[in-house]
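Lecture 7 notes: from sequence to structure.
We start with the chain below.
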Amino acid sequence: MKLISWNIDSLNAALTSSSARALLSKDVLKTIIDHNPDVIALQETKLPSNGPTKKHLEIMKDVFPDYEIVWNSSAEPARKGYAGTMFLYKKNLKPNVTHPVIGAPSTMDSEGRIITLEFDGLFLTQVYTPNAGDGLNRLEERQIWDNKYADYLADLDKVKYVIATGDFNVAHKEIDLAHPDNNRNSAGFTDEERQGFTNLLAKGFTDTFRYVHGDITDTYTWWAQRVKTSKINNSGWRIDYWLVSDRIADKVIRSEMMDSGPRQDHTPILLEIDL
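Predicted structure tokens for the same chain:
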């Protein structure tokens, strides 16, 4: 089973815009399609509250002819055109699709942050974890989210195997970002967020990248757009993950970052697992 996850930072732009950045996004989509994955997970789709428009669906039918599409978009009382997630899965697959509500604070449960696909032997779920915000103004709510989400995954794991992916918005350890000393207490590298991720793993989950590659350094999934040289200098963070139930960690064949060329922001991540 081959799976790819990517924080696309606006699906609309990737599909309909002709800007330089959109063209780079189109190149990344082509790379993903060339890998012929069974499932593609996309975060930060930023679609309207009722999902893709007719134009989006027409384009996607051409771009992804072999896939079914399901989505979860931000809707009132949350901001419109914000956050959002999407799964594309091969048409021969027949999962049960849910949009979980985990009892998160504020409008987080309305922001389209989770989709779960249930198959006969496993749950495949993706998340776009809320950012702690400017000045850490959402950190307290983020901590509640982390606890609720960890409980949600643990409940799934009691039923059947779990594969979880997405933008978790946290660099877990110092080796997961290029400049830990300069980023202490920054959103995504606070002690609270790192502990939240530790607590999640402790509930029975394996960070597959670390399982495969050990303590390798200088390998990241995100480079800041605002710093033009961040990717050239590899001043990145690893904040996107493939997690699996501990009891199937030995089934992982590959867990790695994909090449997104000169495009900054997130790069896709690939998991290959033999179940």
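Points to note: The longest strand covers residues 122-128. The helical segments are 11-16, 20-34, 54-63, 139-157, 191-202, 208-213.
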